[in-house]
Amino acid sequence: MVTKRETPDQTSRSRLLLLDGHSMAFRAFFALPADKFGTSTGQSTNAVYGFTSMLVKLLRDEEPTHVAVAWDLSGPTFRHEEYSEYKGGRSETPPEFPSQVPLTQDLMRLVGVANLSSPGYEADDVIATLARWGEDAGMEVLIASGDRDAFQLVTDSCTVLYPGKSLSDLRRMDPAAVEDKYGVPPERYRDLAALVGEKADNLPGVPGVGPKTAAKWIGKYGSLEELVARADELTGKAGQSFRDHLDDVLRNYRLNRLETGMELGVALEELELGRADRPGIDALFDNLEFASNLRERLYSVVRTDGGAATPAAPAEEFSVDLTVAGTGELADWLVRHASADGITEEAPAGVAVEGTRGRVDALAVSVPGGASVFVDPTVLDERDSEALAAFLADAERPKAVHEYKGALLALDGHGWTLGGVVSDTALAAYLVQPGQRRFDLADLCLKYLGRELEEGTSGDQLTLDLDSEKDGGPSGHQQLLAVRAAATRDLAAVLAAELDKRGGSHLLREVELPLVGVLARMERAGIAADRPYLEDLQGEFASAARGAVERAHEIVGREFNLGSPKQLQQVLFEDLGLPRTKKIKTGYTTDADALAWLAAQTDNELLAVLLHHRDQTKLRTTVEGLIKTIADDGRIHTTFNQTVAATGRLSSTEPNLQNIPVRTEVGRRIRRAFVVGEGFEELLTADYSQIELRIMAHLSQEQALIDAFNSGYDFHAQMAAQVFGVAVEDVDGEARSRIKAMSYGLAYGLSAYGLSQQLGIAPDEAKKLMEDYFAEFGGVRDYLNSVVEDARRAGYTETMLGRRRYLPDLTSDNRQRREMAERMALNAPIQGSAADIIKVAMLQVDAALAEGGFASRVLLQVHDELVVEVAPGEREAVEKLVRHEMSSAYDLRVPLGVSVGSGQSWHDAAH
């Protein structure tokens, strides 16, 4: 590991850090898995992420005053002109790598680091020239490179930081380290390299002469020049081999020389580390969907102007005049500081709640002006509790909170509610940037307020004096919670302005915030589960998995681990000699798709057994997970997430109830485990019929599509009849299936190739099917074309309710990223509008049930379906209510069809 050197500080000597761009980027690329680092549009980011991590470490540990990154260019160099095979034979560059180079260069520019290159030369030459400039100016020079040619530049004032075993491991190669490693001083490393060659550059060395022999010769004769002059003195096979390959050695020596006298069009003083463009970095990191911790680490080592995406609030607005409320003190504090006159929608009170579902451990309130209070619920007397409950519930005193639903569920355990919430800063940030992955309060403070929300910081940050409790003052924990409340308060105002600019304020006020209360009630209610039935299913799936293992061993004739990719590769490709699948780092893939492909190519029974084993194992794991989440009340309480899916759809976790298939027999068997609870009569399910296609008909205004919905015939059969030119009654199952796949595929941005894969037909046939479809429904084609072009001009797509999704990759030079963004632009308005409509339906159903005094309640939302637990005697009225509210959620050009079913279990209620 590189550590900070023991040298005079940078005030007494300037320090020049030079980075070999491609060398570091390739190292980062292969150190981090490409499939684990990428954006939702398909852009790989592992090289950018790893490069940035290495840069952060170098800037932190080395504290350079001047920095530059040298990059190779794609054209030939003077070395290729002399030796056409130079660098020949290198493996093909991974396709995920090239697009990351310009992104990394953009980041360097934003950080304030110079990117340099020169036609006809390599990055090594640029580095060599800059290193000499630095030494001539009396600077200490550091070179971060994985190219051993850089060792010839090492001097007492120039050190190479050479990669070790891990991404963060850099070995400090000074003159002593080079000589210890190779047996020659740095100024003779070029001589040694000429003798032993360099495989990476396709420069063959002298056969039979390794580094030790080469170092011994150079040590004896002093230099390669002298060695050549006295070549006849070399004895044995090695000596003869040297004489036989002398031309190669001399060529290597010429090509190894690094150019130190280049014209680079830049002065040394221009390489001083500049100020970082913080808004630009924020935008790039958002586009790359990087987690916040890398951003924080980068900002800790670069200079910025304190700028942010939105101007930061003055430092004094973060001051926390904190009162720790003792017994009998909170009510008076609320009277003095939290009146309705001092709290407005534009300047709400910030509320921070610490606790879990059903329990508040502590909370803090921070009002405009900075007055803040820390509340420990265990010390409150009756008057304080009543005052706090009244304040929290008061809709006339606006409040901002981070993660509203969590606060509601925690407060509920004390009988408190939270009214007057005008902003959930997590939801607001999600509406501003729906493609972002995380919405932590600390991340948002850093991005939008330009301050770090952490303990022990100072300067242009939120500060906490964690030693104050020693003097009898508030503890660090108490201050931190109060600061979180203050940060939430100020962040709400900044995000409100951002939402206004993006036209999303009404979505926050009218849809997302009201929905929080509905979701909280659904989570509290949960859904009853039949534990004995699930345990029987678990045993059945486990038994089937064991049976598959035994059968697989019988087929192969020996035991092996069916869950080990390495052992599977041995069995499938070595023992059985089956066709090779996609090449991966560890051999050939044995994932489910690969096994299915092999099964289609061969008739080997083992493949069907392996797929069956995986299915049964996955099902057993799913059922085990469900059993573990059954609470003491016999019900499963999933968690609904509003800020995960960029399209606006809800998701669920712990457990995920949206991944239980409904169209497979096994999925239906699992749904049978979800049953009506005690005190209720039955479950009712209601879902939208073909909502995506109805939205497409509405948005495209294609009359033929609208007529198909209004025809009274089966929609997909009617569509197929029009495309294939036959009567509806003559449409067979295959034709209907093809048009159904086409219709839904278009709604989800499916390409002709994707359609061919889905239908199992040739791409040309799928293309012809798509052309025939568009010939009949030209309005759909025109709409889809206009969606992409409109999004390209505006930079975003928009749902019918105004939910925007920003897609900067629509103008990317990278074809893969651009096409992925185009597919998103196609399906985002349709999927997003469907998500918006079901949310509006949930709000209307919930409100109507409450207004009607019904005991029935909504339990689940799964995609386009609502699950309602019906109280005794309310079945008919509830069905009528649900149908009406769901069908009237939005006025489309075609009816919003609603299908309803009921029964004792989720499965029985299917329709």
TrEMBL record:
GO biological process assignments: DNA-templated DNA replication; double-strand break repair
The 5'-3' exonuclease domain, residue ranges: 14-274
Any GO molecular function: DNA binding
E.C. designation(s): 2.7.7.7
Keywords, in A-Z order: DNA damage, DNA repair, DNA replication, DNA-binding, DNA-directed DNA polymerase, Exonuclease, Hydrolase, Nuclease, Nucleotidyltransferase, Transferase
InterPro entries: 3'-5'_exonuclease_dom (IPR002562), 5-3_exonucl_a-hlix_arch_N (IPR020046), 5-3_exonuclease (IPR002421), 5-3_exonuclease_C_sf (IPR036279), DNA-dir_DNA_pol_A_palm_dom (IPR001098), DNA/RNA_pol_sf (IPR043502), DNA_polI_exonuclease (IPR054690), DNA_polI_H3TH (IPR020045)
Catalytic activity of the protein: DNA(n) + a 2'-deoxyribonucleoside 5'-triphosphate = DNA(n+1) + diphosphate
Residues in DNA-directed DNA polymerase family A palm domain copies: 667-874
Domain 3'-5' exonuclease as annotated: residue spans: 321-500
Biological function: In addition to polymerase activity, this DNA polymerase exhibits 3'-5' and 5'-3' exonuclease activity.
Family: Belongs to the DNA polymerase type-A family.
Protein's name in the database: DNA polymerase I
Organismal lineage: Bacteria, Bacillati, Actinomycetota, Actinomycetes, Streptosporangiales
